[in-house]
Fold this protein.
Amino acid sequence: MINSIPYCKQEFGGAGAGHVYTERYYTMRYGNKCFAVKITKQTVNCGVYLPEKDKYESCDYENKVTIPATIGQILSTFKFIEQP
């Protein structure tokens, strides 16, 4: 649920050139219409830092905590401004 709005989340991903790409689709129905919000996230493949533990841990934290929290903040502001 996002602001009391039920939704379906789908996630797809891929990798290339030291990065990981994740696409998330949040779909919801409102009245007789269907809406989709797409978020594309590009992160560094932290595996490139494995020999350097500090850099790896910092990268991993950014990917697993900081970025998802920011996306959560953005999604928490989603609302419909007109009634169906």
The chain has a mean pLDDT of 85.
